[in-house]
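On clarity, I found the account of how folds are encoded harder to follow than it need be. Since the whole study asks how a given chain folds, the encoding of that fold should be made plain. For illustration, here is how one protein appears when written out as sequence plus structure tokens:
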Amino acid sequence: MILILLGLASCQNPEITEKDTPTSGKTSIAADATLQLPVESEIKAFERIYDKAEIACRYGSEAEIFQALLRDSVSAVIAARELSSDEKAHFDRKGIVPRYVYIGADAIVLLVNRNNPDSLLRFEELRAIANGKINAWEDLESNSHRGKIDLVFDQEGSSTVTSFMRLLGVKKLPPNAYAMNSGNRVLEYVMRNPQAIGVIGMSWVSDLSDAARAQLGEHVTIACLRPERYPKDRYFKPDQVNISEGKYPLFRRLHLINCEGKNGLVSGLATYIASQKGQLILLKSGILPATLPQRTVHSN
């Protein structure tokens, strides 16, 4: 009977069959798909240093990675939000205290067509666009462009969408909001449509190849935002300096949420990402790191 119980316990997570330490063994985590390139870079760098460590990472939408965490198929997530009250209660019942490691912040970038003169937006106007109160360019304060506004995102349910809605206090997006299924398609749509506003993460922009970045600069403008209660001429671009100084209001805080319940391989990875080397990887990807000095990311 004891052997049977031990056998069942060993099958609860088939992906992890041996004991892991902070620098060795195997573990599985999940990460937001919009952060795939910087997370992959972090894991590869960690595994190069600790060659007995093997970290399997699955990438998905915000909903998908938290579902994987609640199913116990992964030990941690790298995400753009914290656990909800129901999710916390799940781990309370298991006697596990989730550990948060704040790793950095990623700007949410607004892309507009190069032929659109409206590349300066007030935060209040953006909120009105997101909740459907404004759906035409002529309804903006500048009144310098005409036509219906198309609001385009990378994927339905992505953290770009959910963070955008949380930051603007929007419960439901309007009918003129569309999912393009990838960041590249958002860029292509904005390039072809002067009425579009593309919504994407700054880490995606920073990860573009030199050729793609040149194409972006030629056909697309990164919009600047004016926060609420700021003077009329104060607009800010989505870079690391403006995020750190609280001037660019549209950004999401990134956490590694460790639910392994022990001092294992996830703890080692979290320590590495929070270290100087790990934070430098985030800095180069366009993310504002939690502990390192910032640099300005030039889009053009």
